[in-house]
Amino acid sequence: MSVDSVTADSVSGPGAIADTNQHYDLDPDIFGQFLDPLRKYSAGRYLSEHDTLEQAQRNKLRFVADRLGLRGGERLLDIGCGWGSLILYMAAELRCETLGVSPAPRQHGYIAEQAAARGVADLVRTRVGHFERLDLPARGFDAVTMLGSIVHMPDLDEVFRRARAVLRRDGRLYVSESCFRNAAIRARFDDRAGTDFVRDDIFGWGDLRPLSDLVTAAENAGFSMISVDDLTEDYHRTIEDWIANVEANAATIDAHGAGTAQRLRRYLEIANAGWGYTTKHYALVCRNGR
Ligand SMILES: C[S@@+](CC[C@H](N)C(=O)[O-])C[C@H]1O[C@@H](n2cnc3c(N)ncnc32)[C@H](O)[C@@H]1O
């Protein structure tokens, strides 16, 4: 496995990339203590008041498959694949041929073990690196997904342009992301202490943008828009469930480093305080066609 190297001054300007391994390359067990069993680190979808976190995450993966119009057997690229929840699910449920991309090496070892245990090793591949730097086959995929990862990519135009280049004609791109409510709120809240803590201390780099920035970059790349869904309330509930798990498993999380649980909890509480006021969570679906 090769890992892209990143320098601190590479996060601005065209072609910029950012390093977030200080968070995502932590021991996968930490994430197992507060995420659902598939370790999906993004918003779930709660269809009833009784849905558990695990059910909500499975609902969400079904929702993504529906929005992409997947029927089975498609070639799917997941950019920012985390611990593999989406690729493992699409391989097991729909026999999709999947490729997951992430710069965090430990995620890949975990995914390989899970794919073998679930009998889908032949349908699940991953590559270590930044999407912006990887060579991928032109028009090589029927669908592309990005759940909670575009926030870590400085150059939106480059990302949407590359995503379109790897999609077959009429293939779909699904992006779900947390966004500032609008440009004025971004300007006001971008350098607040809470924003800095989440961006720099937790992730290393992350840039919440208004939805309009994502749509503009998608349009510039040549995509047609299909749909926008508001998943803000779903993310609020997801994070409530994560906070409860961090509290319940704080001692195990802190065995990986004193204060880890408290930092995680602070991050999650800051995120949950903003929904509907300063921040929203949207799912955007685009088509590579006229
Ligand atoms: C919030 S996690 C979401 C993981 C997964 N999509 C999920 O829903 O569980 C963000 C992921 O994006 C990855 N990532 C960060 N920068 C990236 C980049 N430039 N290219 C590809 N993946 C990236 C991180 O390593 C991490 O796996």
From TrEMBL:
InterPro entries: CFA/CMAS, SAM-dependent_MTases_sf. One of its GO terms (molecular function) is methyltransferase activity. Keywords: Lipid metabolism, Methyltransferase, S-adenosyl-L-methionine, Transferase. Transmembrane segments: none annotated. GO terms for biological process: methylation. Residues 1-10 have a biased composition (Polar residues). It comes from the Bacteria. Residues 1-20 are annotated as: Disordered. Its EC number is 2.1.1.-. PANTHER family: CYCLOPROPANE-FATTY-ACYL-PHOSPHOLIPID SYNTHASE (PTHR43667). Belongs to the CFA/CMAS family. This is Class I SAM-dependent methyltransferase. It comes from Nocardia aurea.
